[in-house]
Specification:
The chain has 313 residues and is of the alpha+beta class. It has 8 helices and 19 strands. It has 3 domains: 80 residues, Uridine Diphospho-n-acetylenolpyruvylglucosamine Reductase, domain 2 (2-Layer Sandwich), CATH 3.30.43.10; 114 residues, Uridine Diphospho-n-acetylenolpyruvylglucosamine Reductase, domain 3 (2-Layer Sandwich), CATH 3.30.465; 79 residues, Alpha-Beta Complex (Uridine Diphospho-n-acetylenolpyruvylglucosamine Reductase, domain 1).
């Protein structure tokens, strides 16, 4: 098993008032839906936004920072992640507040599905699409997550976050630079809160829409498998799954990783796959699609960390 040099004692000595949890060589595989990958050199779970800002302001500039959420759209490589991995927890970043004007203020550790449910409970329409996204709001902000005809860009008013210097910043919608599955907000910002704008709606109709989304997911996607959701972005005017199917990749395997028979833009861990198996299978799919159609698929799943044989050089 990979182990990194322990940097936690040095970090704690620099941050005597730190309140969050900081652990050395913390396993990450159980924090991801694929259930693969090595450890974090240091894993930090801040107590709240002020604790996160305190930590970042005192973290040496040369220490890399990686942020993870619910781990639904993520491959952690087998060699683990050098530096600090930050994971926001529900205690400090899990609040949901209904505000005047059919608005929701939400912590970024809140699962997308809970936002859809809170909006429905308050008869706020426009956020039911979050029922179909298996992640948290932090990830939704970073990648303009969307499903079933809705996207984060359609409902966001502003987002709040902390940058690498430990400064709290607020980003208006126009500052986010949203595009398809992308935001051009500064990469060093860790989002902590989002403010969404909904519209007045009928609670029964909203709940019915959420049920429709749920049924559509269960019918078309392998949601009961160890998977990471949609693997590749849809190229302009095309569907990734159709390109993958046409290239003969449905059911393709590498080790214990497989292209889902149910929905071939999903990769699954059949039980004992490594991160290298899953990522390698994805690259096999990209190569076959390119050879068949001339279209280069772009990863939607985020891949972090180093290979198992990484030597730190």
């Amino acid at each position: 098993m990979t182990t990194f040099p322990d940097i936690v004692p040095d970090l704690k000595s620099r941050m005597p008032e730190l309140r969050g949890r900081l652990m050395a060589n913390a396993p990450l595989k159980d924090l991801t839906w694929f259930r693969v990958g090595g450890p974090a050199q240091a894993l930090f779970s801040p107590a709240d936004e002020a604790d996160l800002a305190y930590f970042l302001a005192r973290l040496p500039a040369e220490v890399p920072v990686t942020v993870i959420g619910l781990g639904s759209n993520l491959i952690v490589r087998d060699g683990g992640v050098p530096g600090v991995v930050i994971r926001l927890g529900g205690k400090g970043f899990g609040a949901i507040a209904v505000e005047e004007g059919h608005r929701l203020r939400v912590g970024t550790a809140v699962p997308d599905v809970k936002v859809a449910r809170a909006a429905a409970d308050a008869a706020i329409d426009g956020l039911a699409f979050y029922r179909g996204i298996p992640g948290s709001i932090g990830g939704a902000l970073r990648m303009n997550a969307g499903a079933h005809g809705g996207e984060t860009t359609d409902v966001l008013i502003e987002a709040r976050g902390v940058d690498r210097r430990g400064e709290v910043r607020v980003f208006r919608h126009s500052d986010m630079g949203f595009a398809y599955r992308h935001s051009s907000a500064p990469a060093d910002v860790i989002f902590t809160e989002a403010l969404f704008q909904g519209r007045p709606g009928d609670q029964a109709a909203i709940l019915a829409e959420m049920e429709r989304v749920t049924e559509a997911r269960e019918a078309a996607q392998p949601i009961k498998e160890k998977t990471g959701g949609s693997t590749f972005k849809n190229p302009p005017g095309r569907k990734a799954w159709q390109l993958i199917d046409a290239a003969g990749c449905r059911g393709l395997t590498r080790g214990d990783a497989q292209v889902s028979e149910m929905h071939c833009n999903f990769l699954i861990n059949r039980g004992s796959a490594t991160a290298a198996d899953i990522e390698g299978l994805g690259e096999d799919v990209r190569r076959r699609v390119y050879e068949h159609s001339g279209i280069e698929l772009e990863w939607e799943i985020k891949r972090i960390g180093v290979e198992a044989d990484w030597d730190g050089a």
